Structures
1.
Amino acid sequence: MKDQDKTKEQLISELEELRLEKHGHKQVEEKQRESEEHYRILVDSTPDFIYSLDRESRHTAVNQSVCKALGLNAQDIIGKNHTDLGFPDDIVREWKPLHQKVLSKEVVKTETTTPLPDGSLHTYEVVLMPICDERGVVKGIRGTSRDITERKQAEEILKQYSERLEKMVAERTAKLTKANDHLQQEITERKKAEEELRKGKELLQNILNTALSLIVVRDLDGRRLLVNKEFERRTGIRLEQAIGGTPYDIHSPEVAARILNDDHQVLESRKPLIVERTTLLKGKVYTLYIAAKGELSTTCPRGKGVDNYRVL
């Protein structure tokens, strides 16, 4: 229908539709602007570096964190590559193959240490992603870099502490192992010495048991440490019961006191002593010829019906 054939009402209706359509477009554009503004505020408020590069690694967009770190305005950064911005050549060479991977539609995640204009070194956790047009052709790179310097420093401190702790544990373990080895050696040597002592004592007991003399070995307190079979035969006290006893349990108090006094004299003078003592054993009267030397007291009873006893 031609415009001249349209009625007035039709033309008014179409104009109203056009007006509403235009108003709708404005609302969409306004919402889009609001969305972009919110996105810009969000991007500029994060401490992470957010930026985009073209295929020649020139900056096409940066957030405020990038500007603050470089000490430049956004317009001074846009259109420049890292060399233009004064980054060291070794850093540029490190980034170049990473950018090439992204341009091949790869997503790159890495860590890099970069110097800033103030001379400080910072370590960043970097994520690089391709920017594609509506045909899927890569037209640039979008990147985010998070400063993890403090985290890496903390990790290094923790690593050093862990290594130092492991060293201390290793040293302590070595000392304990050495001490344990030494202790085991001492235990082995002690067991060996105890076994040798046991065998020696057993050999001595066998030798003493063959003697015709009544033999007693006492400690410094006068208690019996060792007796022979003759002692058991003469006193009626079994060997195992005799150990630990004193002269008082087989002699009269007077004779026992003299025997202990004899022991004392020997220990004081360090010289042999030979004396005679008369005592009553198992109802029989014996004359004891006591020979003592050092800590060893040897007594030999000789009396009625007993002949040829040697005095040791």
2.
Amino acid sequence: MIEREMHPVLRIITGIFRTAELGLSLVVHGFFFILIFMVLIAAISSDKPTVEKESALFLALRAEGLRAGGALPEAHSVGLKVRRSYHDREGQPLDLSTRGVPLGTLVFVKITVENTGHSVTNLAIVDHLPGGFEIENPRLGREDPASEALVSKPFDAEYIDMRDERIAAFGELSVGKTVEFAYAVRAVSAGVFRAAPATAEAMYRPAQRGRTGVKTVRIQEPWDPAP
């Protein structure tokens, strides 16, 4: 099939129409852009909404943390007893309050929960990390077998939620049973910090709960003298 060459005049006319079509498209898009911009400016610069009818306004605020200089919560148990301990890779207990650990040390945290109340099908075990520590997430290839070797009555967690500042495990716990849950953290920032209580709670029966006390932890700088 032989294609005929377009006549120069037709080629010029076609180019003019294509240029006009492109210009029209730019004009339309520009118009809509200006329209949206004007709407936004009007919304920003408009007067504040007025109250047509006076009525009561309710505001609820919730804050979590430890009050500086205030009384620290003590261990408490209502149907669930919770204990927390810190260990090295060999399973030996660590004294983080007085001796502390050097920067970069791998520490294993063990949470023990004993059910002295009713059977719980929706148990939540939550431990807030103190400042200076970071979870060794096994999902990122940082799993250490020492965590499993540390527990003799492992908690069969249905789901584990790992965040920057806490770890939470969910599952069941029959009455009279005791379970242990362990995970690894690494000391990443030197200083003196407070570890908030580790807690255990029946999610749909909040009256059945327990917590540990607050603990002070120390992370030493590399140049700090040995305690």
3.
Amino acid sequence: MDTNKPSNDDRAFRKLLKEWRMEASPPPHFQDSVWRRIERAKAPASRSVPRMISDWFATALAHPAGAAAYIAVVLVVGGGAGWTQAYEKTARVREELGRRYVRALDPYQTPLYSLPLARHSVGQRLVRRLHPSRTI
């Protein structure tokens, strides 16, 4: 079947198009407004950074793989941040409880592990040599 040959329907349609006339006149400055819209469509739209991020998220999360990757990244980053904060707080609490314990035993004694040098392995060995009876 050859689709390039005009059929009877095409001939009738072409005849109808030739007979059709537009009787209404376009609004004033119609051509100018059309050209302004064309120029606006051609010009790259300057978008704000939040708008670009929003568009990127909308595009990425529209696909299941993008949404799964986004959720995985958020969970890993959030879990890592939470673990880090919990670890630091636990270390501070542990150190404070150790100080309180040493003060409860002897209020005039300074705990060795509160010294900056005693926190490192070299410092711990030095403290053990200098004070074998005290534990860190």
4.
Amino acid sequence: MWTVNGGGFADPTNPICHGGGEETSWESVGNGWTEEVGIPGGDDPSPWIQFTFPQPQKISSIAFWNFAEEGRAIYQAEILADATNSLGNFTFATNLVYVAGCVAMETIQLPAPVTTSSLRFVILENGDGITFPATTNGFTTLVGLGAVRFSIATPPAPLLSITAAGFSNIVSWPSQTGYLYQLESTTNLNPPTTWASDGPAMTGNGAILTATLPAASDNRFFRVRAQ
């Protein structure tokens, strides 16, 4: 797992709560909102924020710290995977819970783990009751969030079964849908151990996966990596 924008945490390694100040949070520019005379106001009737990952990740849940002012906190948002795949609409607490003077964490449990290169929060409503796209102007159209933490789904380590069949060995293991499984082997478990791939990666389908390998004259140790 990793945290996006850990600047507002008193202890980033153990983020119980987020300070939520403007300097350490994301906030929209609002719609028709001018903070100071002579400075152009914001023009953002449909605010959203997107988090892009270095490579596709299988995300199972999201820890969420809202903006520290109830009116500008996110009340409802739609979460999109890869900008188009809707994971549903989610409602957040705007009567904010504070721990030691900062915003406590909420957990977004996704309906199912999703593999994606990005997650986008499309804001639907803020704590002031302004729905988006906004049809009004002014301070009440501002909305923001403090920080998010993404949890990567990992399947349990599969239990391998090896059966001799003539001059071959059949290696099998249970799979889960949506994961890739790579069978690997080595002849020596003494460190540093070098593992080599045995055949191509296989896509899990909820059934038993099998790989047939030629019998070897030396000892071989097998493992399966799931991702």
